[in-house]
Structure formats: structure tokens, C-alpha cells
Write a structure and sequence with these properties.
The structure holds 2 protein chains of 2 kinds. Chain A is an all-beta fold. Chain A has no helices and 11 strands. In chain A, a hairpin with an 8-residue loop joins strand 9 (85-92) and strand 10. Chain A starts with a strand and ends with a strand. Classes of the chains: A mainly beta, B mainly beta. The interface between A and B is medium-sized, with 23 and 24 residues.
Chain lengths: 113, 114
């Protein structure tokens, strides 16, 4: 059974600091997704990582994928308040023809001025 | 504008009263999915559909039904809701490009079952 674990589940940090969210998964997959959810809102796609060593960057967020370690990271550089949200990683299980994503529990990120 | 719509956005109901949450997409996607989101559990798939008249169970299908009579619509039906179905529900329309599957989410439906 594919499991996805995120760490930490809750993170409170000061503006201007750097931090990393970790996403571990339990079985082979080379497709990993990061989503953002603002309070009371829907989910917004941030990054799609398709291969070992893939790195994607958008503004102060950078995501990477190590398929051998079954680990993805979402790094936040010089955090600003607008990045406060819940971040989810999800892994493509690709079982049969079920296009199913298995989701981590989410990391609630609060960035204080 | 490409979008996924859900209705209603908020619903408070009582145990046993049948309800339907509608979902519609305008992107001509074949794949659609329903999720529920509960604190600390992420998103869990309820049902998915690969095309018209083709549906299958996800991880937590108990107490739910779906139908897919048209490509654009994928309603979620709770025949006899119970309090443990109080949750935030998301419909997703999926662009399956072959390389990866991009999921487009609806705005969510917050359901409370008393």
C-alpha cells in the first residue's frame, strides 16, 4: 500500500527565514505533485516533478525529487506572509488504470511578520 | 475559462436525508474524481470515473454513490448521510496527458450532517 508522509505537519516561522517541508513515500513512483491550499479555498497546483533529480522553482518556492530515496522537498526561501497556506504533496500511484493520487496529510505553514 | 464547479458550496443536513452534490467541468476531461478532506488526513479518494458510464471505488467509498451519464457531470450521492460524512468534499477533473495527471479541483463543498 502506498503511503505518503509529510513533515512537519505544522510550521510557524518568521518572515525572511528559510525552511524545508519533506515528503516521503513508500513505494516506487516517479510522479510527485505539490499543491497549495489557502484557508477555506480549493487546491492549487504548484509543481509536478516527473523524474529523479527534477527541480522546479517558482518565486520563493523550490521543489525537488529524489526517487531513489523516495523523498521530495519543498524549500521556502526568505519566507513572506503571502506564503502562509497548507501545502500538500501527492504521489501518482498508477495502479491499473486508476489515475489515483495518494496524498500526504498536509503541512500547515504560518509565516509571521 | 476552464473550470470545475460544485454545488452546493455549503450544506447542513440531518441524518438519513438523501442529498446530491453536483460537479461539472468544461474541459472535456475523461477522468473525474471525488475526494473528501478531513483534518490531518489529507485527501482521500471516494470514487473516480474514467469515462461516461465507467466508475470505480476509491479508498473510502462506503456510504457514497456516483454516476457519470455525461462527460461533463459527475454527481456525488449520499443516500442516507450520517454524521461521520461531515467533511469537506472536492471534485476534481483530471487531464491525463500520458506524462502526468494534472488535477483541477472544484471550490469544495462543506457538508455538515447533524
Amino acid at each position: 500500500e502506498l503511503k505518503v508522509e509529510q513533515n512537519p505537519l505544522f510550521l510557524s516561522m518568521q518572515e525572511g527565514k528559510n525552511y524545508t517541508i519533506y515528503c516521503n513515500y513508500s513505494t516506487t513512483s516517479d510522479r510527485l505533485y505539490w499543491y497549495r491550499q489557502d484557508p477555506g479555498k480549493s487546491l492549487e497546483s504548484l509543481f509536478v516533478l516527473l523524474s529523479n533529480g527534477a527541480v522546479k522553482q517558482e518565486g520563493r518556492l523550490m521543489a525537488s525529487l529524489d526517487t531513489k530515496a523516495r523523498l521530495s522537498t519543498l524549500h521556502i526561501t526568505a519566507a513572506v506572509h503571502d506564503l502562509s497556506a497548507t501545502y500538500f504533496c501527492a504521489v501518482d500511484s498508477r495502479m491499473d488504470s486508476n489515475y489515483q493520487l495518494i496524498w500526504g496529510a498536509g503541512t500547515k505553514l504560518i509565516i509571521k511578520p | 475559462e476552464a473550470q470545475v464547479t460544485q454545488n452546493p458550496r455549503y450544506l447542513i443536513t440531518v441524518t438519513g436525508k438523501k442529498l446530491t452534490v453536483t460537479c461539472s467541468q468544461n474541459m472535456n476531461h475523461e477522468y473525474m474524481s471525488w475526494y473528501r478532506q478531513d483534518p490531518g488526513l489529507g485527501l482521500r479518494q471516494i470514487y473516480y470515473s474514467m469515462n461516461v458510464e465507467v466508475t470505480d471505488k476509491g479508498d473510502v467509498p462506503e456510504g457514497y454513490k456516483v454516476s457519470r451519464k455525461e462527460k461533463r457531470n459527475f454527481p456525488l450521492i449520499l443516500e442516507s448521510p450520517s454524521p461521520n460524512q461531515t467533511s469537506l468534499y472536492f471534485c476534481a477533473s483530471i487531464s491525463a496527458s500520458g506524462l502526468y495527471n494534472e488535477q483541477f479541483f472544484g471550490p469544495g463543498t462543506r457538508l455538515t450532517v447533524l
